[in-house]
Amino acid sequence: MSKFRAYLTLMRPPNLLTALADILAGFAAATALQHTIDSEVFGFILHDLPWIKLAITGVASMCLYAGGVVLNDFFDAKLDQVERPERPIPSGQVPPARAAAIGAGLLLIGIILAFISNPVSGWIALIIAVLVCSYNAYAKKNSFFGPLNMGLCRGCNLLLGISIFPQQVVPMGFLVIIPIVYISAITLVSRGEVHSGSKASINLALALYLLTAMMVLSLGVLSEFYVLYSLLFLVILMMVVLPPMFKARSSNTPSLIGLAVKHGVLGLIILNAAIAAGFAGWFFGLLLLILLPFSMLLAKSFAVT
Question: Would residue 74 count as lying in a domain?
């Protein structure tokens, strides 16, 4: 493994697009409530929207995510020497101190970029950075607070996309519950990637997946949300994430559990597309879904978990 590839591997390139998907979904939802969407032009309009702020916030989100996973490997270095010695830090490709510096630097860049977008985004980015550090250093070891903490990271990332329109953060804050539930499911399952997991955890994760879909559909109570636009993407999501979960539940082997986790992570893009389509129209959902094949392509060369 080349030095460059080792450093890139630390940042989980396939997952960075899922972080960007959070921002796009939050942006779509907030835009709908700003009443700037023209439903007759493919569900959104190109003018009169803060595209520069969207770009800055998207890069900020990816920096925050990259910093988080780099620090994750830094904190897990000793464990990975036993369980995953091929990873960049235990294999000696990346010195631990340098990984820590890169992770912290990426978090700082993400926070700065978010503040450049607007102060509200900056404070949300700072909260994400604190949550990232708390998860990596402490919470991941706890079976309850670990999944919850990771879910909060994703929920706040969706809120970061919403914060491009700062006035929508409070009225739309309830949306963070959706990624919290979904990510909690993935985190529960991921505990069995090295050693086989428990069927109880997989059963609970399956229930959380279905609860996530129901929560998205329940957004139909909002006049700005169109359930039919969202439903197609939810069907695709379930087709992607449920079969690997049932296989993992049946065989309960690390390889199948890892595959279920991989599909769950990539499924984040589809979940975000479902949210975006409901608020901004089917065309915006399809645009967001374009991220999926690129993420899947990267997942063939780089680890997702």
Answer: yes
d(CA 233, CA 273): 7
Note whether 286 and 274 are within 8 A (CB).
no
Q: Is residue 179 a contact partner of residue 140, using CB atoms and an 8 Å limit?
A: no
21, 289 contact by CB (below 8 A):
no
The pTM for the full model equals: 0.92
Number of helices followed by number of strands (H, E) in the chain: 13, 0
pLDDT digits (tens, 9 = 90+) for 139-160: 988 888 988 999 999 999 999 9
Q: How far apart are CA 232 and CA 275, in angstroms?
A: 11
Give which of 76, 66, 68 is closest to 141, Cα–Cα.
76
Rounded to an integer, what distance in angstroms lies between the CA atom of residue 252 and that of residue 268? 23
- The angle at the Cα of 196, spanning 193 to 202, to the nearest 5 degrees, equals 80
Q: Which residues of the chain have pLDDT under 70?
A: 1, 35-48, 192-197
Residues 6 or more apart whose CB falls under 8 angstroms from that of 157 comprise: 19, 22, 23, 26, 61, 64, 65, 128, 179
In a domain, 304, yes or no: no
Nearest to 105 by CA among 57, 74, 56, 67: 67
Q: What is the pLDDT of residue 189?
A: 86
- Given a contact cutoff of 8 angstroms between Cβ atoms, the answer to whether 174 and 185 are in contact is no
What is the domain-level CATH number for residue 122? 1.10.357.140
Amino acid at 249: R
Interval 206-245: pLDDT, tens: 999 999 999 999 999 988 899 999 999 999 999 999 999 9
Q: Quick one: pLDDT at residue 41?
A: 41
Per the domain annotation, does 283 fall within a domain?
yes
Domain that holds residue 128: 3-298
Q: Answer whether residue 133 is part of any domain.
A: yes
In total, how many domains does the chain have? 1
